[in-house]
Amino acid sequence: MESSSLIPFSLIFCSILLSFASNGIEARRLQYISHLISEDLFDSIFLHKDDNACPARNFYTYDSFIQATEVFPLFGNTGNLDTRKREIAAFLAQISHETTGGWATAPDGPYAWGLCFKEEMNPPSIYCDSTNTQWPCYPGKSYKGRGPIQLSWNYNYGPAGKALGFDGLRNPEIVANNSLIAFETAIRFWMTEQKPKPSCHDVLVGKYVPTEADLAGNRTAGYGLVTNIINGRLECGRPNDTRVNDRIGFFKRYAQLFNVDTGPNLDCDNQKPF
Ligand SMILES: *[C@@H]1O[C@H](CO)[C@@H](O)[C@H](O)[C@H]1NC(C)=O
Ligand SMILES: *[C@@H]1O[C@H](CO)[C@@H](O)[C@H](O)[C@H]1NC(C)=O
Ligand SMILES: *[C@@H]1O[C@H](CO)[C@@H](O)[C@H](O)[C@H]1NC(C)=O
Q1: What is the arithmetic mean of pLDDT over 51-68?
Q2: Which protein residue's CA is at the shortest distance from atom 6 of ligand 1?
Q3: Which CATH architecture best describes the domain 31-117+193-274?
Q4: For residue 271, how far is its CA from the centre of ligand 2 (angstroms)?
Q5: Residue nearest to atom 11 of ligand 1 (CA)
Q6: Which fold has domain 119-177?
Q7: Quick one: average pLDDT of 13-41?
Q8: Whole-prediction pTM
Q9: I need a labelling partner for 255 at 20 to 30 A (CA). Which of 40, 139, 141, 193 fits?
Q10: 153-200: pLDDT as tens digits
C-alpha cells in the first residue's frame, strides 16, 4: 500500500519540479527584480517624477528600469533577501540625489522627488578632458551629466557606450533620450569597479575587501562608502555635508518603503576620499 502510493506521488512531484525547471529559470531571470520592487513600490518611491514641474516627466519608466536590470543579472540578485532589497534601495536613493527636484518644504518632503531631471541644467563646461586620447571628444558635443547617475566626461561616456552598444562620444545625447540606455548607464556604473574604487555593488553585498589604504582612510562597507565612490572627493571627509545628508535622507525613506534596515556606516564624514 505505502510503496504503491509513493510512486504516483513522486511522479507528480517530479513533474512539478520539471515544469518549474523548464519555465522557472527564464522566469526567475526576467522577474526576480520585479518581485522585490513592484510597479506600485516604484511609484510610491518616485511620487513626483512625472509631475509637470519635472523636466524628466514621463522619461524614467518602471519598465525601462526593470529591462535595464536584466542586462546586469547580479544587480539586486546577490546575497539574502535583505541584502538584495538594501542594494536596490541604495541604488535608487543615490540616483534620486543625482536627479532630485526636491527642496526642504516640497510636497511629500524632499525625498519624494527623485528622477525629476534627466540632464544637467546649467553645465559649467562641456566636460571634455582633451588630454584623454583614448576617448577623444567629438567636436560640438557636450559630455554633461545625463541619466539617473548623471554620467559625465568623455572618458566615462566612451567606455559606457562601448560596453552598452551606443556611440558615447558622437551621440552622448542618447543617455537623455533613451530611458533604457539611461538606466543601463547607471546600473553599469554601480556594478563596475574602477580601481582603486570598488564597485558600489560589491560594497553592498559584502564582497568588498578593503586595502591597507582603505583601512587607513576609514573606508568601511556601508552606504557612506557608496557615496564616497560616487562623489567622495567633493563630499566626504567633512562634517555634516548637505549633499551627503540628502543622499542619506533618500536612503532612509526608501529602506523604510522596502522594509529593510539601512545597515551601518551611512555617512562618509570620517572617510578619506579615494
Ligand atoms: C534627443 O534627440 C533629439 C534629436 O533626435 C535632440 O534634438 C534632442 O536634443 C535630444 N534630447 C536630449 C534631451 O538630449
Ligand atoms: C577615522 O575615523 C576616526 C574616528 O571617527 C577619526 O578620528 C579619524 O580622523 C579618521 N581617519 C581619517 C583618515 O579620516
Ligand atoms: C548640519 O547642517 C544643518 C544645515 O545644513 C544644520 O541645521 C545642523 O544643525 C547641522 N548639524 C550639525 C550636527 O552640525
Answers
A1: 98
A2: 173
A3: Orthogonal Bundle (1.10)
A4: 7
A5: 177
A6: Endochitinase; domain 2 (3.30.20)
A7: 61
A8: 0.88
A9: 193
A10: 999 999 999 999 999 999 999 999 999 999 999 999 999 999 999 999
Residues with catalytic roles: 98
Instruction: Give yes or no for residue 241 CB within 6 A of ligand 1.
Output: no
> Does the beta carbon of 119 sit less than 6 angstroms from any atom of ligand 1?
yes
pLDDT confidence of residue 31: 53
Looking at all shown ligands, the one closest to residue 245's CA atom is 3
| Residue pLDDT, tens place only, 112-127 | 999 999 999 999 999 9
Q: What is the mean pLDDT of residues 4-13?
A: 37
- Residues of the chain within CATH 1.10.530.10 domain(s) are 31-117+193-274
Count other C-beta atoms under 10 Å from residue 272's C-beta. Answer: 15
Ligand 1 site-directed mutation target among 144, 170, 173, 174, most atoms within 8 Å of CB: 173
Pocket lining: 174 vs ligand 1, CB cutoff 6 Å? no
CB 126 within 8 A of CB 137: yes
